[in-house]
Amino acid sequence: MNTFTFKNGDYVPEIGLGTWLSKPNEVYNAVLAAIKVGYRHFDCAYIYQNETEIGRALRFAIENGLVKREDIFVTSKLWNSDHAPKQVEKAIRKSIFDLQLDYLDLYLIHWPVAFKTGHLYAHSADDLVSPDEFSIEKTWQAMEIIQEKGLAKHIGVSNFNMPKLNRLLTNSRIAPEMLQIELHPYFQQTELIEFCRKNRILVTAYSPLGSHHLIQGKAGLTREAIVKSIAEKHHCTPAQVLLAWGIQRGSIVIPKSVNEKRIRENFNALNVRLDASDFVKLGDLEQNLRISKGLFCVLPGGFYTYEDIWEK
Ligand SMILES: NC(=O)c1ccc[n+]([C@@H]2O[C@H](COP(=O)([O-])OP(=O)(O)OC[C@H]3O[C@@H](n4cnc5c(N)ncnc54)[C@H](OP(=O)(O)O)[C@@H]3O)[C@@H](O)[C@H]2O)c1
Fold first, then answer.
1. What is the pLDDT of residues 117-163, one digit of tens each?
2. Residue closest to 75 by CA, chosen among 109, 41, 52
């Protein structure tokens, strides 16, 4: 298994199974199929509301000798309603319990946006908490404590841009070790990746296939002529081209699938090696097309605007 390395020498496999929108009744089989194919990395989150089923699959795999706990890498994420510093430990303990583990390998702040405790979704501005009340620095201090307690081996953030990362790098005892962001040829974020490389923050690419389901019909990266022609050249599939592109750019990729054939296909992207001319062509697909805009946090009269969330 190819890996990226944290500062302390721990490894994170360069491909993981995404689980957003994997229905509870599908994700159990998906996780077991993935383990059998060779996946050792699972990207989860409290808000995906399927950690219990993932936990059942992980437990089954460990108890039946398919895999050892120390050989898998499991991520979960702190949801927006748990940014109150006193909530952070409760939240990670809930994910650890549901995933039937003793610790997580990685815990991320999911979004730089806070909802009131108990409000899974924000329906109006009243459900939001101001960024001053639960600042990212205050929530991060609680993240540092859960790492020190051994509840998460590594801590990081998701959907943060450079200014917010800089705030944590400047004001924190422990620097974020991972940034999870949307990355695919339509949205390449080259400057942000370079910033992370310089600051020794690993990068995970979410929606590495262009979150197929959201842009189906409109764009559809796997149906791009350039992607298809590169796939033909390398005798592989369009999805494998996209994943190989993500990995060769130095990011971890976490494609989601609940289909056994596609789970295997995605894993086999590890065998695809793109060349410099492929990179030029795929680079030309840039459209600055952000799919996950975080608009569910942007409410009339609320504290967060699109520009605040994605400040440059
Ligand atoms: N941190 C965040 O805010 C955030 C946001 C979004 C996503 N994520 C994480 O990143 C993971 C991946 O992102 P994503 O789910 O948005 O999108 P994605 O992995 O880019 O695409 C998933 C979609 O592509 C389909 N698919 C999978 N393999 C395929 C293949 N080989 N060929 C054609 N279609 C294929 C899947 O359907 P089937 O299941 O039917 O195969 C699904 O509809 C998520 O599951 C989640 O773990 C994190």
1. 999 999 999 999 999 999 999 999 999 999 999 999 999 999 999 99
2. 41
Q: What is the pLDDT of residues 155-206, one digit of tens each?
A: 999 999 999 999 999 989 999 999 999 999 999 999 999 999 999 999 999 9
Predicted local confidence at residue 118, as pLDDT: 94
Residue nearest to atom 47 of ligand 1 (CA): 18
Q: What is the CATH number of the domain that holds 118?
A: 3.20.20.100
List residues with catalytic annotation: 48
Q: Which residues form the domain of 132?
A: 3-216+249-268+287-301
Q: How many domains does the chain have?
A: 1
| Domain contains 240 | no
Identify the residues whose C-beta falls under 6 Å from ligand 1. 18-20, 43, 110, 158-159, 180, 206-213, 222, 239, 254-259, 262, 265-266, 292
In a domain, 90, yes or no: yes
Taking the C-alpha atoms of residue 119 and residue 277, their distance in angstroms, rounded to an integer, is: 48
Query: Number of C-alpha atoms within 13 angstroms, CB side, residue 225?
Result: 0
Q: Is residue 282 part of a domain?
A: no
- For ligand 1, the distance from its centroid to the CA atom of residue 181, given in whole angstroms, is 13
Going from the Cα of 195 to the center of ligand 1, the distance in angstroms, rounded, reads: 25
**Does residue 153 lie in a domain region?**
yes
CA of 12 to the centre of ligand 1 (A): 19
Helix (H) or strand (E) holding 79: none
Which tokens go with 309?
């969330």
